[in-house]
């Protein structure tokens, strides 16, 4: 048991690494969820956020959380009234309304807009990643906090929140596992990632994989295991998509649990490579 436990990396450890030392935030249950997403998404970059723009945006986001005391639990309660622009009172020209095209001011976050809507997508598990990057850059050209540094404190706060949320949305949707967990959450189905595995077959499989990773003599062997994990992730991602489409949420959770395990193996491998 202990051997498999080694696969788990504390989420806060990763989150702290991803953030500046001056941002000594505490992981509440809610930003824990966000930290979890960072954890999931960082596997390909060796647990480090390497894109400076993403990094800066996350810092703004967490700094803002720290000072405003806001948390994700207040999402619905905090729903902004986005019927018209707070600055010029014009009606939005397009949805979602993150930015006013008339006066070019950043709008307050409307938490009723989900991540799929931010990217102009329907609530569907399977997406083409190529569409996301362009849209992500478009948003950041409009709402990035650096663009409003000379504006009012209120708008700077909006920009920090909007930008952070777009980053969070982008990172969630581009990661198959985080996306699966998120789309289930939109259905009101929570996934407990720390849930103990009751399937002996899966446990045995993971222990064997873990041993293979530990015993791997060279990077070639590790890469082979990694590509096997990738195949498994694709397979279970497809199973998840089917289960979700059929609204079989129990099955969808089983798929997520599998994906979580394989993902963590890949995390371990990435550290060794
Ligand atoms: Zn306006």
UniProtKB/TrEMBL annotation:
Q: Which domain of life is it from?
A: Eukaryota
- Domain (J): residue spans on this chain: 114-186
Protein name as it appears in the record: J domain-containing protein
The UniProt keyword set, sorted, is: Chaperone, Cytoplasm, Mitochondrion
State any single GO MF term: protein-folding chaperone binding
Output the lineage of the source organism: Eukaryota, Viridiplantae, Streptophyta, Embryophyta, Tracheophyta
Is the keyword Transport assigned to this protein? no
* InterPro entries named in the record: DnaJ_domain (IPR001623), HscB (IPR004640), HscB_C_sf (IPR036386), HscB_oligo_C (IPR009073), J_dom_sf (IPR036869)
The family this protein is said to belong to:
Belongs to the HscB family.
A Pfam family that this protein carries is HSCB_C
Task: State the PANTHER family in the record.
Answer: IRON-SULFUR CLUSTER CO-CHAPERONE PROTEIN HSCB (PTHR14021)
The record, for NCBIfam families, names: hscB (TIGR00714)
Q: Name one GO biological process term.
A: [2Fe-2S] cluster assembly
For this record, the Gene Ontology CC terms, alphabetical, are: cytosol; mitochondrion
Location(s), subcellular:
Cytoplasm; Mitochondrion
């Amino acid at each position: 048991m202990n051997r498999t436990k080694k696969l788990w990396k504390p989420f806060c450890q990763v989150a702290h690494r991803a953030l500046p030392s001056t941002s000594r935030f505490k992981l509440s249950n809610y930003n824990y969820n966000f930290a979890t997403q960072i954890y999931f998404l960082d596997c390909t970059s060796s647990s480090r956020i390497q894109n400076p723009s993403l990094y800066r945006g996350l810092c703004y986001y967490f700094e803002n959380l720290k000072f405003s005391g806001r948390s994700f639990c207040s999402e619905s309660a905090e729903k902004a009234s986005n019927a018209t622009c707070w600055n010029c009172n014009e009606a939005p020209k397009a949805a979602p309304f993150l930015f006013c095209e008339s006066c070019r001011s950043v709008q307050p976050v409307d938490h009723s807009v989900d991540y799929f809507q931010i990217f102009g997508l329907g609530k569907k598990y399977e997406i083409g990643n190529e569409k996301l990057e362009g849209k992500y850059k478009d948003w950041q050209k409009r709402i990035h906090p650096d663009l409003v540094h000379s504006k009012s404190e209120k708008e700077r706060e909006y920009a920090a929140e909007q930008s952070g949320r777009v980053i969070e949305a982008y990172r969630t949707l581009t990661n198959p596992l985080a996306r699966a967990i998120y789309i289930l959450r939109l259905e009101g189905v929570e996934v407990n990632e720390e849930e103990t595995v009751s399937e002996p077959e899966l446990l045995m499989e993971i222990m064997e994989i873990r041993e293979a990773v530990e015993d791997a003599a060279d990077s070639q062997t590790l890469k082979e295991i990694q590509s096997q994990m990738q195949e498994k992730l694709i397979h279970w991602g497809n199973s998840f998509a089917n289960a979700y489409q059929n609204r079989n949420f129990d099955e969808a959770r089983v798929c997520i649990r599998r994906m979580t395990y394989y993902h963590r193996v890949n995390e371990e491998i990435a550290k060794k490579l």
